[in-house]
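In the laboratory, one determines a bound structure by crystallizing the protein with its ligand and collecting diffraction data. In a computational setting the workflow is compressed into a single prediction: the sequence and the ligand go in, and a structural description comes out. We illustrate the idea with zinc ion.
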Amino acid sequence: MIHLARIRNVTLTVLCFLFIFQTATLVQADPENQIYTERMALFKKIEAITQVPWYYFAAMDNYERNTLPSTEEEKVISIQFDETEWFGLGNAAKSTEQDIIKHFRGIGKDGNDDNQADANDPEDILYTMANHILSYGLHEDDVKIAIWEHYKRDLTVQTIMNTAKVFQKFGDIHLTDRAFPLDTNYNYSYRSTWGARRGFGGLRIHEGTDIFASYGVPVRSTTYGVVEMMGWNLYGGWRIGIRDIYNIYHYYAHMSGFDKDIKVGQVVQPGDILGSVGSTGYGPPGTSGKFPPHLHYGMYKDNGYSEFSFDPYPFISKWERMEKNNK
Ligand SMILES: [Zn+2]
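The predicted complex, in structure-token form:
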């Protein structure tokens, strides 16, 4: 009997070790997924408590994270409040006691029931933000005002509302797919031309990559995002702008026209057809053929203060490789 019990014990111990080892391996295999899972669980929990749809504070969190330098260590939640807003004016000791914060008219709240409103605690941060939104109301326009009151910047509000729309549509925050701007089954060619001088329009620097292809080759969205602008522009011809969920604006120019289903405000995903390659621009609406057909593709990053263009070449060549490897 003793023998049997011992064997059973050893077996149990081995099984336990195996289980722990396997779990550890699974977690280790994808630490990036783990933070998304943890974030999503927090968003859903705060939504359950407050009834504020999770995608609003998820979009705010995502926006703030993408204004930070990539060298900074990634936090579970990146939403930040300034100290006066959180603790209240006059709460010089920065007391995290709810009653004291309330007395000084701070907005910091306790979301995890430890009686402290901690500005560094993910649940307290989200619970406070959800209550901030709730104090304005849950109609889309109310939420917009709540977000504006927190950031006081139009582009920030617009980006957050777009991202919320994308998160809502896909029911997820971990959206990492990408696509090359043209259908890769067609012939095309491109090289790094960012920063080169262009002939027309004075001394403007070339802010993008030109991808040469024949008329009619499908132009596709490279990213998840929302169509922010489409129409005619003197230099760009028929062009379309999409703001993605990483605070980046994607600009597609010289197109021959747009896909009939594409509209301003629409949510798109990588590979969605936007229109086709053309040679429009450098004149009044409809002007075409002043240069060989190509897609001009530009990328602009918003860091929370200003928007600046950067070289899309390394990104589109990476997306091209990703697509070719998937074939
Ligand atoms: Zn160009």
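Confidence is low (pLDDT under 50) at residues 14-27. Keep in mind that any predicted model is a hypothesis to be tested, not a measurement.
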